[in-house]
Structure formats: structure tokens, C-alpha cells
């Protein structure tokens, strides 16, 4: 893989197309599966679809997720929510920081995959991966600070102690950005999990492979199974099942365009999901708080103070 | 001969490799002093010499401040927060990787039990660096304006009771906010600070961002009074804190002080008794009572006095005093001969004043500095042992009748660092908490610390807070 | 032993007036004690003491006389290769197999403990429970492990629970009575404290954490609270009651932690099989493996210890 400098060469591995001698080494190609509940199943439908690079050259067959896979992913996310939200903020921060360490260790792999997926040159590819890692670190550092920025002691007019605390809302469905296959993906997944939510993410339909590699990093990190689940497949097929699912508490529609996005938002209203609407986002810019805040509820507690 | 005698369970010293002598850590390197001299640091448990350390003279301090200023102007303050953050994350990780070694080193140099340094001190050190690393690139959200700036060069002087933890409390927020530092560890406990200097090198921290100048009172004074620093942070005795406040008064320097205390630990009749007794023990015997926020005054409601004292005496009999490196030791050595003398002196005063002194039967080792856990009963507010900080394993016991009386007695002190409240009644906890004039109130617990939790005193216990979002203020130009 | 006490007026007031337990504090204390490092001679002593405190247990629907005989053989000679290993304290079985155990253990010094009172649920009439007890005792059990009525306890009917224990104690005759609180169903440590006192006031000789059929079974914090209760009860009422954690104690390390807990809470008067038991089955082999390692210096393996 190290001689990818010849940018005309497609694929992510494989012997040089010019090699004609019998001694050329054949690469062991990766299978790209779903990531649900900490395991890597194929789609229960048995289907896959062809993923190509920006020049329509074959990259891989990715799993084509069905509605049942989506249903299973939501079940896994709900199961993982209790433990993940009950972990200390410090613990979540540690776990997420470790993911960044592993991403850094696999930097070259991700650069190659992002370049292949998005047709980027070497410098651009590296900038994207560096930004994704740094973004992950930025979010990891929020875990034990959200309560201080978002919580408060409220000076009510009476002999009561009153405080407001942010709490995670639950299971968040994420339709990841279509074009930005790694940086965009990180930018929509991390803000949900940092505060204790669990996620079912639908990767970019056109460019899902970096997200699947990220799920491999998650599987070898300390992130418990089910906290982040990654589905690959047709956005139009899968997203409606997540948008209408009554056990999903919030949904990020970034990867959907009109008219699909409007339909999804309407379906989400059925159980009053908290919704992040799609916009024209520049993922290279510093994110604000809005995604994290969308996935936080606020609990206010009263207690009398008297002797 | 007890039925179940715990055999010695020593933590191995071999994990630590001590140099024979240490220079000063200035501008990223260890080097000799230009105008200082050498002194020794010993193990207070055995009195053996651990290493030779350098006492920095005024010219050394000047070199350190110059290095810090240069690093501030050319490297650190302009560096984006997210890059500063990554240095701090590296430091946190290396502390975790070298955790056992640092714990052993801390117990050797300080005298505290290995169980405490291993399970409390060092994990909190790493946690502090992790926490503040995450603020470095989020300062615009900290509530200090859209683009808060650092102060510049911070001069920091720390005490001997939690050497590496006090270093973490000082350096982590300072660096996160973009300042550079010159830190002086206490003269009896320099070794973990010097190990920290090595960690800075391992993390590839740019030279001059952290400088460690070892020494005693004179070195501290030279640092605090140096005109080239913008910020002074001091943790130590109230007496020295006042000197520093006086010295800095005519200057532009920002000052934060974390000083002494004489905390009241208030136990009500409906307290969860067994946990309250643990809280009392923890409050004054944890770290041999060398804790500024120690619960050194037990205020017990008169109606449960006999019961609580009986439980307390029974509990003290199971405390194990001895070799700090033994994993089963609960009470370690007193940090120095000087401190031991002070504790003894005040204990004699206690007896002379008419209080009744009691300690569980305790075998003290021959070498080293040791003092048995001690309770004084029949103490009243007027006694010196109820007013003056002893900074040792000595508890003064007073009584009260009503919550209002408890508050009054608890607040009746020039100090105001911490307080404890033990009761099952929620409204009473909140009522007491709102009336106690103390920077930290522990309800149904004691001596709990966390990097997210602001810590600091009222009144003569100092000003400023360390930890949490509030802890950033000390290192920002706000 | 001791005469059962009369029905206590204001029983509810007494139990609710006991000091509360702060769970966070209790768990922290248990965790600190669990970090004690027990090595060399102390460990040797502790391993042997733990073995001698085991109530070797089989309480399965599929138990047979053959199974009970095999367990009794192990109880008398735990380590096939080492006759110096101590015997366990008791074998614990269902009432209809008590007679098998009684024959096998006769004269050995190992006690015959039988569960009774419709173990494990306890959900039947008092009449049936008492018949169950008498059946076990007449079959040769010299120790009876009863269950309290948790439903009545949680509904606040403390007097009913008390009266049942008194009646069972009477039906035991000379047999020792262990009262199982089923702490996993009581859930809060305040309930554990109250149930402990209730069982002691009603005349129990031992208080026991669990049936082993409900999770969580024995834990260090629960046992800590029970040890505090027996300590305080002896202080105020002058009678010593034993403690038995049961279920979930699998490793030698766990067992030693329990001994440390006893040592530093109730005190060494309880460091004796007459006053402290460990309800376990697979624990024994781990204790034997650790014991063997201390003697030989080598790590051992499961092939060298019997599975009965």
C-alpha cells in the first residue's frame, strides 16, 4: 500500500496492474461488514452493494443493510445505553480519547481510504484525517465539562436548593454526511456519544468504507459494544425505518436531502424525536455546541433546605 | 498475638531508579545551579538519604523565569489550544504509564502509605491533566468571554503533603490556558516533581514551558518576588500566604492562595453511624492529617456523643501504622522532624489546657518520624488545639446541641477551607451547606477530590479556586 | 443456646430507628478492606481457615444420593493428594437428602446442614414450613438454613417475619438455625440492617446472606453491614450470632477478602467456623489450588483436584 503515490492507480490493495511476473504478491482484501452490538455481522438480508471510488473503479462490496439490521442496531444501542450513560464522565472521556489514539496509529490506513473514497490528493487526505482525529479529541474533552457549561444552580425565591443537570436523551440515529466520509462522520457521531447517548449511524452511501474502518477501531477500543453501531447501504431504504422507530430518541438528518429529509423529519415527529436538520455544513470549521445540546435533556431538582 | 496477623506486604522499591543527585530543570534540561547549593532529601520513615537535590539561588530563579518568558512569547501562547491540549493529554498518559513508579517514589519521599499514593494521589494527578487538557481548546465556552487570554509566566510554590498532586493542580490549568510556569516543590518532597520534569521531556514539551526549581523558603521567596512573573500561585501555611499577599500587594501580579484550615466535621444524631465514623477517621487520619482541609475538629451532637466516641475508639484500634511501602499500612510517617516537633508541641499544649488525650495502642518504629493517631476529648472552642492547625493525626472533639449551635461553632474560626456534615436528613444537609462558611462542604463523605470540583477557601484559608471551570480563572486575564 | 424472645411491641419503630447505612460509604469501606494484601504466612493461615469455614453445598433439582455421597467424601478429605488439608465445616443439602449426608458424615465432625422452610422462595404456609424443618431435623440435620418471608418484610409486616423465625427456631430443637435474609431481594442496605436485627432478636444463631438462587448473592458491602449488626447486637444484648455469606464466592481471593472483613469489622472472635461460614461449592477447589501453590511454588491446574 505504500506506493500509492502513483495516484492513477485505483483500488485499496492488490498487486500492481503492471506486474506481470509470477512473483507479484496478491493482497488479502478486506470484507466490509456491518457493526452492530460490538460484532461484525453481514446483513441479515444477505445483500451487498458495490462501492466505487470517484472514478467509478471497484473498491469493495459493502453490506447492504435491511430494515431488520436497522431494527437490530436500535436494540443494541438501547441495550448499551444504560451502561454507557451511567459511566462517569471521566470514564467516557478516557474511552473516547483512546479511540483517537488508535485512529492516530492507523493514520496511514485512513488517509489511503479517504483518498480513495473522495478522490483527494495526498496533502488533502492527510489534512482530512488529521482534522478528524483532532475533532475526536475535542469531543472527548467535553465529556466532563458539559455539566459545568450546561448545568446550573438556580437561585429560586424560596428555601430550596435547586439545580439543573444535563442528561443524555437516549438512542440517537445519525444519517451521516454523503460527501465527507470520515471527517463528516466523526462530526456527527462524536457529539452524541460524549454525553452518554448511544448511536445508530448510517454511513455515506457512496463512500462508506472509512466509517467501517472506524468501526473496526471502535471494536478494538474500550468503547462497549452497542454504543456506536454502523450500518452501510441505501440511505433512502434505511433512513425512514430509523426516522419512524419509536425507540429512537433523536435523529441527525445531515446525510439526507429534500424531499427525503422532509419525509424523515415528518416521521420523526411521531414520537417527538429531537431533530438536527440537514444544512450546508463546512466540516472543516470548528463545531459549536448545538449538536451536543440537541442530544441533552435538562433535569431540574428541588429540595428544601432547613434545620 | 492476633489470630489473623497480616504478613509484611511490601511494594517493591526496584521500580524506582533514583539518581544520586539532581540539578534544576530549566528550559527543558537538567543542569547545575549557578548560585545555589546542594541539599539532601530523606525518607521520613527510615531517615535514609534518598538523593542530593539542588537549592536554586536567585540567579537560577532568574534563568528559569527568563526561559519561561521566552517559551511563553515564542512558542506557547501562540500555539492553538488544540495543540496545547495534545501535550497535556500526552503528559496525562505518561503519568498513567508510570503510575506505579510515581506512587512508590511519592511514598518514599513523603512518607504516606503506598495504598494512598497508588489509589488516590497518582490517579488524581493523571485525571487533572486529562481534565484540563480538554479545556485548552474550549476556553471560549468557559464563561470568561469569547477569547480569554493567558496571564503570562506563573510562579508556583507547592507544599509537601501531596507533592505531585499539588503540582498537577498548579501546572495543568496554567498550561491549558496558555501560560508557562516556574514551579518550586517543597524542600522535603522534590523527587516526584523532578520525575515530572522527565515526563515533560518524554512528552516532547517545548523547552521552557515547564521549569522546576528545587529549594526551600528562600528559593520560593525569590520566585514569588521576581518582577518577571505575572501570576503567583501558592499552597502552604496561612502565615507564609500572608507574607506573599503583602509582597505582591504593590505589584500587578495576580495571586491565588490555598492555605490552612481547621475544619469542623459535624456529626448529627441521625447520622449513618458506621459511615460517619469512617468519615471522621478519613477526615483526620488520611495522609497522617497532613491535609489543609482535614476534619480536625469533630463536632458531635451531645445526644450521641458516647456512642460515636466508643465506635471511633474501636475503629482506631484497627488502624495500621508503619512502613509506608507496606500495602497494608493505613498511617504512614510524619513528613519531617520539624513537623513532628510541632505536632508534639501542640499535643502537649492540649494536655496542659485540660483536654483528655487518647491514642490506640501503637508500636512506633525506632527510626523515622512517627506520631500515633490521637484524640483529644473535653475540648472547647477556647483551647489552642481547637483553634490552631496542628497538621498531624490529632483530632479535637467538641460537642453541640442544635444545628444552629453547630454552624456557629463550625464558623467560629479565622479559617474557612472545608467542613463535613453527617446526617440522613437532606434538608438539614442543604441548610448546613448554605450556612457553613467554607469553600468545600462534604456531606456524608469527606476528603473527596476531583478535577472537576472547585477547591479553595474562605477567609484566612486563602482565595481562588482550583479545579473545575472555576479553576481556569486563576490563569486567565479576566 | 438462647431462649427465643417474646414478640416485641414497637418492633417496626425499633427497626426503623436503627442508624441508616450510606451505601456509597459502605461500599467504599468494603473496597478499601478488599485492597488489603494478604501474603505468605498470613495467606497460608487464611486459606486453611477459609477451607474450614466452608459449607460445601449442593442444592440442585437433579441432586441424587450419589451426588451427595461424593460431596461428603470431598468434605472429609478435600485434597486427594494432601491429608493435612482441613475438613470443611458442613455439607449443605435439601431435606430429602439430609439422611444420606448424615450417614456419610457420622463421626467426622463435619456438620449436616439442611435448607428448609420451602427453600428458596419460602412461599408457602407456616404449617408446611415447620413440617419441612422437622423433617430435616429428624433426618439427621444438626444445622437448619431457613429463608425469611421477604414478601412480608417488604410489605412491612415485620411481626410476621419475626414470629416465623421464632417458630422455626422452636421446631429446630437442638439444631442450629441460620436465617437466610436473601439480601438480593431486600436490595437496600438499610433493609439488610433491619432484617439482620430482626433475625437476631427472633433468636437466630446465624444470619446468612442468600439462597444462592437470586443475583446478587453475597457481596462484601452486604456482609459488612451484617458484621456490623452482629457486633452491635453482642454489645447491646450480650449474645453472639454468626454470619454466613453464601453464593457468588468463587475464588480464594474473594474468600480471603471476607476474612479481612470479619477481622476488621466484627473482630477476631468471629474468625472461627463456629461463627463464620462461607456458603460455596467451586470455591473449595480454588482454595486448594492456592494452598498447593504456596506449598510447592508452582501454579496448579484443575486436573489435580476432584470434581464431585
Backbone structural class of chain A:
alpha/beta
CATH architecture descriptor of chain A: 3-Layer(aba) Sandwich
Task: Report how far the terminal alpha carbons of chain B are from each other.
Answer: 63 Å
Strand order of the largest sheet of chain B: 13-14-15-12-11-16-17
Low-confidence regions of chain B = none
CATH topology group of chain A: Aldehyde Dehydrogenase, Chain A, domain 1
- Tally of helical runs of chain A: 10
Strand content of chain B: 15-25%
Helical coverage of chain A, percent range? 25-40%
Largest interface: A-B, 24 and 30 residues
Radius of gyration of chain B: 22 Å
Q: What would the principal axes of the Cα set say about the shape of chain A?
A: globular
CATH T-level topology of the largest domain in chain B: Aldehyde Dehydrogenase, Chain A, domain 1
Major sheet of chain A, described briefly?
5 strands, parallel
Q: Please report the first level of CATH classification, the CATH class of chain A.
A: Alpha Beta
The CATH architecture designation of the largest domain in chain B is: 3-Layer(aba) Sandwich
Total number of distinct structural domains of chain A = 1
CATH class of the largest domain in chain B: Alpha Beta
Name the helicity range of chain B.
25-40%
Uncertain segments of chain A of ≥5 residues (pLDDT<50)? 1-11
Keywords:
heterotrimer, A: alpha/beta, Aldehyde Dehydrogenase, Chain A, domain 1, five-stranded parallel beta sheet, three-stranded antiparallel beta sheet, globular, B: 478 residues, alpha/beta, Aldehyde Dehydrogenase, Chain A, domain 2, 2 domains, seven-stranded mixed beta sheet, six-stranded mixed beta sheet, 16% strand
